[in-house]
């Protein structure tokens, strides 16, 4: 089964929610007055209104580079963690977590203010408040990725038995022996696939893998993207499912782990089951474009109809 690829979206620019703290102490850095440049919410604002930060995209500028330029030039933020919230619209929405180590100075010609959540709601337009709320649903966490080891096999086996994983994940690690057969060659260097464990707040919660698709000829024939880097991912711990962490986790993995290793890769590729709406939506929000549908053979017979989704590295992440 095949379907033709959809058109690659081209965002007009980016907006970003800047926040610090957590819970009741969380605050947002907002800009007084109407936006200095056209933005998704720049319509008829009074002088007492505030706005989140937005900037039109410059010609040939990657979305990540554009939002970093925006933060540096307008908000005076030179060093902070920036992640994608939703890149599926005509304007990309990002979030930025400011810590004590971040450099925050007065942006050129811009009046700024840190406001609590209730004050922000009073000062923002309804459209802008909706964007802030969308970004704020992603929790403030510490993410880390480390190479998988055999000591992680008990967790991987347990995660793959969880209903939310077992529904979509092939039977790769039904027990410790199966985990050894499937993952052992990569851990020993006999398979080029890199295996990772993701930690949230220093607790192991899921696993990911990346690989050059061209290193797997049969899969390359199916996907028709041998030059791309394939990625697979799962949040195994049920306590973190449905809490908005998936988008931030995968974005950080692509930005900090995949991109530095595959400097020449033009695209990243993932192929979830066509019924896995949650995974497809995560990819959509990160700028992946749905393309070829194909039937992927399964280890124990049968096929799964999957949707090939590609991320244009140059357009979204740009050069390292």
Task: Give a short synopsis of this structure.
The protein has 320 residues and is of the alpha+beta class. Helix content is 29%, strand content 28%. It folds into two domains: 13-136, Nucleoside Triphosphate Pyrophosphohydrolase (Alpha-Beta Complex); 143-316, Gcn5-related N-acetyltransferase (GNAT) (Aminopeptidase, 3-Layer(aba) Sandwich).
SSE order and pairing:
Layout: E1 13-20, E2 27-32, E3 50-51, E4 53-56, H1 63-75, E5 81-86, E6 91-97, E7 112-116, H2 117-123, H3 126-136, E8 143-147, H4 153-161, H5 163-166, H6 176-187, E9 194-200, E10 203-212, H7 217-223, E11 229-235, H8 245-261, E12 267-270, H9 277-285, E13 289-297, E14 303-312, H10 313-316
Parallel strand pairs: 1-6, 11-12
Antiparallel strand pairs: 1-2, 1-4, 2-3, 2-7, 5-6, 8-9, 9-10, 10-11, 12-14, 13-14
Structural class computed from helices and strand pairing: alpha+beta
Average predicted local confidence, pLDDT: 86
What is the N-to-C succession of helices and strands?
EEEEHEEEHHEHHHEEHEHEHEEH
**CA-CA gap between termini:** 36 Å
Major sheet details: 7 strands, mixed
- The helical percent reads 25-40%
CATH superfamily of the largest domain: Gcn5-related N-acetyltransferase (GNAT)
Number of helices: 10
- CATH architecture grouping of the largest domain: 3-Layer(aba) Sandwich
What share of the residues does DSSP label as strand, in percent? 25-35%
Name of the CATH first level of the largest domain: Alpha Beta
Shape: globular
Count of the domains: 2
Detail the poorly predicted runs. Answer: 1-8, 42-48
Compute the number of strand runs. 14
Calculate Rg over CA atoms. 21 Å
CATH topology of the largest domain: Aminopeptidase
């Amino acid at each position: 089964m095949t379907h033709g690829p959809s058109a690659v979206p081209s965002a007009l620019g980016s907006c970003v929610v800047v926040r610090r703290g957590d819970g009741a102490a969380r605050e947002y850095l907002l800009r007084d007055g109407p936006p200095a440049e056209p933005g998704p919410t720049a319509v008829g604002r009074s002088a007492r209104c505030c706005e989140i930060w937005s900037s039109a995209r410059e010609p040939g500028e990657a979305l990540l580079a554009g939002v970093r330029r925006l933060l540096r030039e307008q908000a005076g933020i030179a060093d902070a963690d920036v992640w994608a919230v939703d890149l599926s619209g005509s304007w990309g929405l990002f979030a930025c977590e400011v810590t004590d180590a971040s450099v925050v100075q007065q942006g050129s010609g811009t009046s700024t203010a840190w406001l609590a959540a209730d004050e922000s709601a009073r000062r923002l337009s309804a459209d802008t408040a909706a964007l802030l709320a969308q970004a704020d649903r992603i929790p403030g966490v510490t993410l880390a990725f480390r190479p998988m080891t055999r000591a992680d096999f008990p967790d991987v086996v347990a995660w793959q038995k969880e209903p939310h994983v077992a529904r979509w994940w092939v039977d790769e690690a039904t027990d410790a022996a199966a985990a050894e057969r499937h993952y052992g060659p990569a851990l020993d260097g006999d398979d080029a696939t890199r295996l990772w464990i993701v930690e949230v707040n220093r607790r192991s919660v899921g696993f990911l893998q990346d690989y050059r698709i061209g290193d797997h000829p049969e899969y390359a024939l199916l996907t028709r993207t041998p030059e791309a880097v394939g990625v697979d991912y799962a949040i195994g711990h049920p306590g973190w499912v449905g809490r908005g962490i998936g988008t931030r986790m995968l974005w950080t993995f692509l930005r900090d782990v995949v991109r530095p290793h595959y400097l020449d890769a033009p695209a990243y590729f993932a192929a979830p089951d066509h019924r896995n709406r949650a995974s497809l939506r995560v990819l959509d929000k990160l700028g992946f474009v749905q393309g070829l549908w194909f039937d992927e053979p399964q280890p124990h017979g049968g096929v799964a109809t999957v949707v090939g989704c590609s991320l244009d590295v140059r357009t979204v992440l740009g050069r390292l």
